[in-house]
Amino acid sequence: MTDIQRDRRFYILLFLLVLVLGSNALLYRSPLTSLVLPADANWVVIGSLIDLAVVAPLLILFLKRRERITVKAFIAWMVSGLVFARFLIPSAYFEPFTYVPLAAIGVEVLILLAELGLVALLIWRLPGIIRWVKSHNESLLFSLPSAVEKRVGNHILLQVLTAEFLMLYYVFASWKKKVPRAEFDFSLHQKSSLIAFYIMLIHAIIIETAAIHWLIHEKSLILSVIMLLLNVYTVIFFIGNIQAIRLNPLFVQDGKIFVSLGLEKRIVIPLEEIKEIKWGREAEEEKINTKETIEFIAKDFETLPPHCIIEFKHPLTASLFLGFKKNYTKTAIRLDEPERFRAFIEDWEKN
């Protein structure tokens, strides 16, 4: 019933968005324009500007309900709406309002300059961040984002830059690192085909890149270069992801469980935040809701069940691809040595 209500809400919002855009298009770009619009149409134009710069952006943001609604996203859509209005509304009617899109673009430029300032601040504080990382005996995958957040902030641009740096680090600077083999390290991928799966994807992308680039470069050089860059980035990401998976098993330190699956996702679970753990068949039979449960199950050629499902007392924040964050109430984990991990957890519960 809830899913039906959500679908109904989506279609209602989509209908309203089409109605707003369609009515304004008919108002200014139809044979009836000269008959409907009065000579002094300033108030009509103001209404259209409100529709395109406020109403339509809000509808779009609510349609994209899986993404967090932010002031920056609203301003970006507002600027897009005002630019669209400049082309939609005839010059004769829009002339008194020509400054409005320029002012909106000016606001967007100020936001861009502020973000560039954040990048400059990140570079300025980089030595302190490096010292903080070295002083904490944690994996770089976990310690670097924490250091950037503490020293600079948690702006989405900083999260993306940190994620990109981690990718480059694991691709180019991690090959001399040894796989951790401590008492409280638990690997997730060794008994799966995950590494082979990524290697197969890399080979497929390289072959596809060579074939497609050769086919389309004569027809569209720009498109062929764009596809080449995207495929190169994908291969680099997969290589970095393989290294991050190898070098970052699940580990327990300072009363926290650090679990990740390469560069794709990671979460820190304080042991005191564990409400309940389901093991074995009980975990396998539970229906996983991906909106509230983050999965750490290595990809294989067949779908594999989790060995345990950990429920939290309070929602915990996980870091996803490119540093994006989302709250979860459970995690499903599949390990190479589930019995050893279960013995560790049960020992901790006894103590």
UniProtKB/TrEMBL annotation:
| Domain of life, source organism | Bacteria
Keywords from UniProt, A to Z, are: Membrane, Transmembrane, Transmembrane helix
Record bears the keyword Cytoplasm: no
Q: Where exactly are the transmembrane stretches of this chain?
A: 41-62, 74-93, 99-124, 156-175, 195-216, 221-240
Q: What is this protein called?
A: Beta-carotene 15,15'-monooxygenase
Q: Which organism is it from?
A: Bacillus norwichensis
